[in-house]
């Protein structure tokens, strides 16, 4: 299984399907409680013509939570460094829910790295904050099973155990 290790030693799980290293890239970004598995059908459809990158962000699926607080900036930086590592200079980003926030934030911060942007289930309003009004300290979730999911109050997160 391919993993990318960030500068703060967080392992991020990813899959990359590429018909050619020069093919245009499409990157699928998960919703908060989702994993790369959710994009399997789309991967099969696009894999003949595109480099298809799916990855589990911090605290998702097979990825670690890392030692840094979970912030919008951290997620955007992870995506940028993963693209750098894989040689993806510009990409078509497709984000769902939480992934849509990260895709939109990436587009605002790195427009030169964008080909197209598709966001699904993104709340209306300014592209500021994306629900990260407070950062989430990773030590608050160490040893707790499940994934991080939004609580009832903006900016507050709780561990959600899925059985």
How does this model look, in words?
The protein is α/β, with parallel strands linked by helices and 163 residues long. It has one domain: Alpha/Beta hydrolase fold, catalytic domain (Rossmann fold, 3-Layer(aba) Sandwich). 21% of the residues lie in helices and 25% in strands. The protein contains three helices and eight strands. It has a six-stranded mixed beta sheet with strand order 1-2-4-3-5-6, covered by helices on one side. A two-stranded antiparallel ribbon has the order 7-8. The longest helix has 15 residues, at 72-86. The protein is globular. The model is unreliable at 128-135 and 141-163 (pLDDT under 50).
Look at the structure and name the CATH superfamily.
Answer: Alpha/Beta hydrolase fold, catalytic domain
Largest sheet: 6 strands, mixed
Strand content: 25-35%
Looking across the biggest beta sheet, what order are the strands in? 1-2-4-3-5-6
Spans where pLDDT lies below 50 across 5 or more residues: 128-135, 141-163
How many E-type strands? 8
Radius of gyration: 15 Å
Protein structure class: alpha/beta
Summarize the structure.
21% of the residues lie in helices and 25% in strands. With 163 residues, the protein is an alpha/beta fold. Residues 128-135 and 141-163 have low confidence and may be disordered.
SSE topology sketch:
Layout: E1 3-5, E2 11-17, E3 25-29, H1 40-46, E4 51-55, H2 72-86, E5 91-96, H3 98-109, E6 114-120, E7 147-150, E8 157-160
Parallel strand pairs: 3-4, 3-5, 5-6
Antiparallel strand pairs: 1-2, 2-4, 7-8
Helix pairs in contact: 2-3
